[in-house]
Write a structure and sequence with these properties.
There is one protein chain. The two termini are 25 Å apart. This protein is an alpha/beta fold. It is globular, with a radius of gyration of 17 Å. The chain has eleven helices and eleven strands. It comes from Kitasatospora camelliae.
Length: 274
């Protein structure tokens, strides 16, 4: 059974890591778009066309589910993708974890890209799920791009800038971009002790498994991991090796729990070298 994950860059790594951890026997097809990346500043028609093209290729290669671990692509084109494929292939999108964070009674900040922070999509999400709680909108210019380039110094600068603009009374930060879990330890270190991070990668992976009817224990030999770069077979870019989950996926190795960020995280993640 093959699950395809589609994103312009490394935002698909956390969800792919959770799928590999929870159901290692699945074959994973990772479709990145380095020629079109990043999708954040692109037009809606550009993102929709790239996503549809990748999804058609995934189905041609035998994908039995399509996961879109990208907030930009989800808000822009998930309805179009579902109209095209849902009758025969489940399509799972990604939504920032505002609802569970608000349900826990937290004072919230949402860290996201500049485009997402200013989007009607995020405002609707907050209006629908924050329960009237005040929510700080914290744009993180350059952070996703720094993560895609493996530039940890630039990422640290972007994190420090965002942390400086996060109200001190916020005790929870929702990671509103799928790239951000890759630097969760650095984010936690920049925030006051006791701050909780909320991420959706684990929930998205579990929803994909439910849609596939795979809710029991995993069994069988480890599945394959294939990479497609802007429509052509390839390998994970070398900069993916800057992240523990990227190293595990590049080696088609098991993904240890320590390499992943749970749905709620309140302590720095200690990830082993793999």
């Amino acid at each position: 059974m093959t699950v395809a994950l589609i994103d312009s860059g490394f935002g698909l790594l956390p969800t792919a890591g959770w799928l590999r951890h929870l159901a290692p026997e699945l074959d994973l097809l990772l479709l990145l778009d380095p020629e079109g990346a990043p999708w954040g500043p692109r037009s809606a028609s550009f993102v929709t066309d790239r996503l549809l093209s990748a999804a058609h290729l995934a189905v041609q290669r035998g994908a039995e589910a399509i996961v879109v671990p990208c907030n930009t692509a989800t808000v822009t084109a998930i309805d179009t993708l579902r109209e095209e494929f849902e009758a025969r292939v489940p399509v799972i999108g990604t939504v920032p974890a505002v609802k569970p964070a608000a349900a826990a009674g937290r004072n919230l900040a949402v860290w996201a890209t500049v485009r997402t922070t200013g989007s009607d999509y995020q405002e609707r999400l907050i209006a629908d799920f924050a329960g009237g709680r005040p929510v700080a909108r914290v744009a993180c210019p350059g952070l996703a791009e720094a993560i895609d380039h493996g530039d940890l110094d630039a990422a640290a600068e972007a994190i420090a800038d965002a942390a400086g603009r996060t109200p001190r009374d916020c005790d929870a930060v929702v990671l509103g971009c799928t790239h951000y879990p890759l630097v969760a330890p650095q984010i936690l270190e920049s925030l006051p002790a006791g701050t909780v991070l909320y991420d959706s990668a684990e929930a998205v992976a579990r929803q994909a498994l439910r849609r596939l009817g795979r809710t029991g224990p995993s069994d069988g030999a480890p599945g394959s991991i294939e990479v497609v770069l802007s429509g052509r077979p390839g390998h994970l870019p070398a900069v993916a090796l800057a992240y523990p989950v990227g190293r595990a996926l590049a080696a088609a190795a098991p993904v240890p729990r320590e390499a992943l960020v749970s749905a709620t995280t309140r302590a720095p993640v200690t990830a082993p070298a793999v």
